[in-house]
């Protein structure tokens, strides 16, 4: 492979802001695996957000990209999988599997797509120093008429359209809007763009915690909600605390600490079969490797209000929840899924099937 921009490249990132800023290019925020695609003739490489290759996990995409992309190019985009008209992040994580046979089976069962939203190189030219509005025009030209499973991400410079996307696209599994300055050069691994994500709050049960890697202070709180059968399901964690606060939490939660997990709603976490029907702490993870997943069980008697952006398949928080306050006025059994806001469903095909927006004027 011999391209003007060579792997590995860490993609340009975005910083969170509260509202959609004016005067920029706007795109949907896709919920998948960020990937840089390098193509030099027959050679294709998919680079992850960390720069490590993803190529072996998506063989069906390699073939599709070879058939549909310009002969020599570098693209920034997102690998996604759709089920029933919405994005399915769980199906993506299943692909990170050591067995090639398993990867091939999943490639046939749940094929992935690639949504392109930036162009880093074309033919023999690096575009890293080219302004965004010009890169977008080149991207639109390079992928004009491209067919599934490769897609050109819709973009607009109309802030009102972006606000509508922010409200509607969540129903298809997307999680917000990205705003990019029109003159922005491509800055690998820098937070030079802006992301606007949904934020909601929920009252959840604190049923355990994990220690922080630095020592005997709280690393993350384990959160639960009761389902329709009255079973406490593990829905995620809250983890962003100062070191002072981590130490305080140890003291605050000490009265609830259990000697062992016997009698705890998640006592079965160590049994592999239990993870097939419930979200439990201590589940094996292909992402965490040898990371210590042990946890300290607490009597599920305290309620906390957390902020979250959206739910993954309606079952758990997609990202780490943010601690807001203790809720002594709430009882644990009142913390159910019924309190969660359900976005109106929106067919993903209406997003990917839409004609490309007119590129910004140069």
Automatic annotation (TrEMBL):
It holds the Pfam family DNA_ligase_A_C. Residues 105-227 form the ATP-dependent DNA ligase family profile domain. The keyword Ligase applies. InterPro entries: Adenylation_LigC-like, ATP-dep_DNA_ligase, DNA_ligase_ATP-dep_C, DNA_ligase_ATP-dep_cent, DNA_ligase_ATP-dep_CS, NA-bd_OB-fold, OBF_LigC-like. It catalyses: ATP + (deoxyribonucleotide)n-3'-hydroxyl + 5'-phospho-(deoxyribonucleotide)m = (deoxyribonucleotide)n+m + AMP + diphosphate. Keywords: Ligase. SUPFAM superfamilies: DNA ligase/mRNA capping enzyme, catalytic domain, Nucleic acid-binding proteins. It comes from the Bacteria. One of its GO terms (molecular function) is ligase activity. Its EC number is 6.5.1.1. Belongs to the ATP-dependent DNA ligase family. This is DNA ligase (ATP). It comes from Streptomyces rishiriensis.
């Amino acid at each position: 492979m011999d391209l003007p921009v060579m792997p590995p490249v860490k993609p340009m990132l975005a910083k969170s802001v509260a509202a959609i800023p004016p005067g920029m290019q706007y795109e949907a925020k896709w919920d998948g695996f960020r990937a840089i695609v390098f193509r030099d003739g027959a050679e294709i490489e998919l680079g992850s957000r960390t720069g490590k290759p993803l190529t072996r996990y998506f063989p069906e995409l390699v073939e599709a990209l070879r058939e549909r992309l310009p002969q020599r190019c570098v693209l920034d985009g997102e690998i996604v999988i759709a089920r029933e008209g919405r994005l399915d992040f769980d199906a993506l994580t299943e692909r990170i599997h050591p067995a090639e046979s398993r990867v091939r089976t999943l490639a046939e069962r749940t094929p992935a797509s690639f949504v392109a939203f930036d162009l880093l190189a074309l033919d023999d030219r690096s575009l890293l120093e080219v302004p965004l509005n010009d890169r977008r025009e080149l991207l639109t030209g390079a992928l004009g008429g491209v067919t599934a499973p490769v897609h050109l991400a819709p973009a607009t410079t109309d802030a009102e359209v972006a606000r509508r996307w922010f409200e509607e696209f969540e129903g298809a599994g997307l999680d917000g809007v990205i705003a990019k300055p029109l003159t922005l050069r491509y800055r690998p691994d820098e937070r030079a763009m802006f992301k606007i994500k949904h934020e909601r709050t929920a009252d959840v049960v604190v049923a355990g915690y994990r220690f922080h890697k630095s020592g005997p202070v709280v690393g993350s709180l384990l959160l639960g909600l009761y389902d329709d059968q009255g079973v406490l399901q593990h829905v995620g964690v809250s983890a962003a605390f100062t070191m002072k606060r981590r130490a305080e939490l140890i003291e605050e939660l000490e009265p609830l600490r259990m000697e062992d997990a016997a009698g705890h709603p998640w006592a079965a976490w160590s049994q592999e079969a239990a993870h097939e029907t419930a979200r439990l702490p201590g589940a094996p993870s292909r992402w965490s490797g040898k990371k210590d997943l042990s946890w300290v069980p607490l009597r599920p008697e305290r309620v906390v209000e957390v902020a979250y952006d959206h739910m993954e398949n309606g079952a758990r928080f997609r990202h780490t929840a943010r601690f807001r306050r203790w809720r002594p006025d709430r009882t644990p059994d009142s913390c159910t899924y019924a309190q969660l806001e359900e976005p109106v469903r929106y067919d993903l095909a209406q997003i990917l099937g839409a004609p490309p927006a007119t590129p910004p004027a140069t």
